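ok here's Capsule assembly Wzi family protein:
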Amino acid sequence: MKKLFLMCLWLTLTGVPLTGRTEPFIKTDDAWLRADIETLANIGVIKSPVSTYPLTWGPILKDLSEVKLNNISEQYHTTYFRVLRKGRSETGKNSNYSEIRANVSQENQMFRYFGDSARGERELSTRVTGMSNNFAWNLEVTLSPDSIDGDDKRFDGSYFSAIAGNWIFSIGQIEKWWGPGYQHSIIMSNNAKPTPAFMFQRNYSEPFETPLLSWMGPWTLTSFVGMLDDSRVVNDAKLLGLSLSFKPLQSLEIGLRRTAQWGGDGRPENFDSFTDLLIGLDNCDEGNLTCDDEFSEPGNQLAGIDVTWRPLTSIPGALYFQTVGEDEAGYMPSKKSWMYGASFPLLFNDSPITVNFEVIDTSVDGDGNDPSIPFTGYNVLYEHSIYSTGYRYRDRSIGSTLDNDSVGKHLSMIYESTDYGKFVIRLSNLNINQDNEDRPGVGGNYVSSNELEFSEIIVRWNWKTSGYGEFTYTGIFRDEQVISNLGALDKQSLGIEWKYKF
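and the structure:
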């Protein structure tokens, strides 16, 4: 990150002006913008894939510019213009774009869902961002005294990007979210802090011109190579990711996702090892590998698929699911976890309320490796015999915020009005670590080593003032006190966040 800071400073001092444009990315910290984008995709206005974050503004604005307003039902005009204004603001010329954010709450954030920005009880963050024709950058520093993981100063959100043709190449720490879920992604979410990584992604999503692949329709591709630089059993392991989203039909979006932990201290990092990882020879009994030497295994992989169906009916909504396999059998994911969801709009004061139902189970199905041992499906997801710290970074799951062996049931409502601000209400019933045990030694569910079952309601209200920035008030109400690995959490908790741009 020191190199990233020096690069941004060099750009500032040598001719790339901070008076350019702002950011090309749509990030994971705005639940209301996400709901608006999903609504416009559900009614067929946005034709690009929208389930892989960070999204890029280019294809979103292109789709908005190509639609005729009289082809959009009047009840969605407010949503259309909100996204259009936001996109033009984020990519238009501004004299300066700096931001200060302060957050105070009564507890560290146990769970992180799409749209969350804070992590600790007290945070102070500042950033400066800009974009020219070929470059974009965001330099961000957050101070979080007494952070639960000891990381009191972090650079989450910082990046430097270069645009070449239809590709964006970035280096930095950018939060990602892969999948259609509003509360969860089994494979890649904003729960863990973003790893330092090199990332490239497709900017615009135009279909292939060749008849052989044109059936895929609009498509996006994202890939990254990150460094797991925290304290681990295998230090300096790499985190690799590849995501492909495409829309063979206007009503159907498919996401293919794959991540892997590879290399690190004492682990092979040669070309053969990488090739075995790439083609899926990841178990010790496959190819030229041997179980007599576990160090011949190239890495630990997760792979999955998510599907979103938007029927484009008179009440536009979406049905979706995601499944991710912890293991591989016959070159296909096995030992799979599942998530299901549905969303639809309810009109109120000429603006839609996005209603979302979502259910996730992070135990796994399938069979065990040893037929003589009963297979329960517990203590499998996010665990590994070699990378025994697991699929986690700085003590938090890289996938679902519930970690493994947990069930979450959610009902959420997202609403934005002109007169009363923006609201999120989330009702959740949670059963964490339902088998009431962890793997011995390192690893295991980071939220709790024992079973926790409780319900909670989260209410969030955002209000933007005319000259003093915007305020977000959060209240969390549980049916009982919760004792977790993150500490004791009271039945009620309040928080306030202030954000000011200048």
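+1. Residues 1-21 have pLDDT under 50 and may be disordered.
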